[in-house]
């Protein structure tokens, strides 16, 4: 048949699966149609798209590579959308600003919200025994998507009705660990108007580079 050369053996779709993050189908060989949602494509996942394009280019199809990929979200990462357009030969610079040679805001997205004078980010350092690791990053989130590892509460505002608060922290590795990070015990106290109302402890697992939880 003349149409034999137009077949693409890719089921016409490319999904960004990660069984380790927020997927209840880890034990199944096939994760399609079992209630597991793929992740949003980011620039670190761009190699998957390039591999699919290259695989279709190496096929005997006379058609240009065509497939459906999901998911994309410009509020999470718009750079990967610009990279996909470059593959198709349609750059965002030409599409959005044909009269200019460059568009500096192509890789950006705008979110409008009220910015409080008291940000929720805590810029502090914790030192213990003079040789412990410092606290590099600490934030309190609501509407935190564990699977995507991002908060949809862009403003970071908290209210008395906020529930399911998430703490996200990053710690600088100890210099003497030489890449073999030991376990770290983190204690958190929720303080309401100067009164401790909750207390929790979290013990991290050893990691080779940085300790993030």
UniProtKB/TrEMBL annotation:
It holds the Pfam family Xylo_C. One of its GO terms (biological process) is heparan sulfate proteoglycan biosynthetic process. It is a single-pass type II membrane protein. Residues 132-178 form the Xylosyltransferase C-terminal domain. It is found in: Golgi apparatus membrane. One of its GO terms (cellular component) is Golgi membrane. InterPro entries: XYLT, XylT_C. GO terms for molecular function: protein xylosyltransferase activity. It comes from the Eukaryota. Keywords: Membrane, Signal-anchor, Transmembrane, Transmembrane helix. This is Xylosyltransferase C-terminal domain-containing protein. The lineage of its organism: Eukaryota, Metazoa, Ecdysozoa, Arthropoda, Crustacea.
